[in-house]
Design goal:
The protein has a domain of 63 residues: DnaJ domain (Helix Hairpins). The chain contains ten helices and two strands. A two-stranded antiparallel ribbon has the order 1-2. A hairpin with a 4-residue loop joins strand 1 and strand 2. 26% of the residues are buried. This is Heat shock protein chaperone. One of its GO terms (molecular function) is protein-folding chaperone binding. Keywords: Chaperone, Membrane, Stress response, Transmembrane, Transmembrane helix. InterPro entries: DnaJ_domain (IPR001623), Hsp70_co-chaperone_J-domain (IPR051948), J_dom_sf (IPR036869).
Length: 300
């Protein structure tokens, strides 16, 4: 009888310990940190996410008919059109014509990127409107929709910009077709608007179910986080904010100030100045942020 009681007591203690560990682990994942600590965690998570998305995305696109690949290495999916420039020069187009074409492509790409950012901002505002608390699970839930907004941009570039503007521009130069770039850019804006609207609707649909599930499974987490001083979800997910923060500038910084800060960071992290792996990764991030701001005309 005593032996049986000891066994039962041991089982109860074991279950209690397992339950406590499980609770603490789950609580740690979902607990609300101080606003500043939470923002830092979000920035790290989003920075890592951008790197992973870039690494997992095929960055070259075939320019059909002309049988060459253009590279789109800049964030989110932009090109400097070096391969197109090489193709044009090899096919006896003048330097002046080639440079004019590259300028037109850069201008069209910039317009498309800015249109996408306008539509993406609506999605990020919808993140705020879901009312989701800022915790581990909710951040990862919203990350799916943020990543899909990047995928939308990539798809419009590969399926719209490349065949309808880049390739079509070469067709135009060869006298094979007419091209109205502004018309094509506006068409792609409408694609962005439709795709992001659909994504927002799916976010609202899923977040309603998700919130109910969270409420049921996490009764112990009764925080009034909205009373705390915090950065909005939309601000934390903003790619423009990421670029400013990476360079250590802000939206009020002038083009010259951004250039000056970029040169300062390059003096610290450029591989010629700093051989560490951390510095190499940091310089990649700095370059991406700088090129991104150039692409949206924040740097002349």
């Amino acid at each position: 009888m005593v032996k049986m009681l000891i066994i039962i007591l041991c089982i109860i203690i074991t279950l209690f310990v397992i339950g406590t560990i499980t609770f603490l682990f789950t609580f740690k994942k979902n607990r609300i940190d101080s606003p500043d600590a939470q923002i830092r965690k979000n920035e790290e998570l989003l920075s890592t996410n951008r790197k992973v998305w870039m690494r997992n995305t095929k960055r070259t696109v075939l320019v059909s008919k002309y049988d060459y690949y253009e590279s789109f290495e800049e964030f989110p999916f932009n090109s400097e059109f070096n391969n197109t420039k090489e193709y044009l020069l090899k096919n006896n187009f003048s330097f002046t014509t080639t440079n004019d074409v590259i300028k037109e492509l850069n201008e069209a790409q910039s317009k498309i990127l800015n249109f996408w950012l306008v539509e993406q901002k609506k999605l990020l505002k919808a993140f705020d409107q879901t009312g989701l608390e800022d915790n581990y699970q909710n951040r990862n839930f919203l990350m799916k929709f943020y990543n899909e907004s990047l995928n939308i941009y990539m798809k419009v570039v590969t399926q719209g910009f490349v065949p309808r503007i880049l390739k079509a521009k070469i067709d135009f130069l060869k006298g094979d077709a007419l091209l109205d770039i502004d018309k094509e850019v506006n068409l792609m804006h409408s694609w962005f608007a439709k795709a992001i609207d659909d994504l927002i609707n799916e976010l609202y649909k899923q977040s309603g179910v998700y919130q109910q599930s969270e409420t049921f499974n996490n009764q112990y987490q009764q925080y009034t986080y909205h009373q705390q001083k915090q950065s909005k979800m939309s601000d934390q997910f903003s790619d423009i904010n990421w670029a400013y923060q990476t360079l250590g500038v802000n939206e009020k910084s002038t083009s010259d100030e951004i250039k000056k800060q970029y040169r300062k960071l390059a003096m610290t992290y450029h591989p010629d100045k700093n051989k560490t792996a951390e510095a190499k990764d940091k310089m990649v991030e700095i370059n991406r942020a700088y090129q991104f701001l150039k692409s949206i005309n924040k740097v002349n």
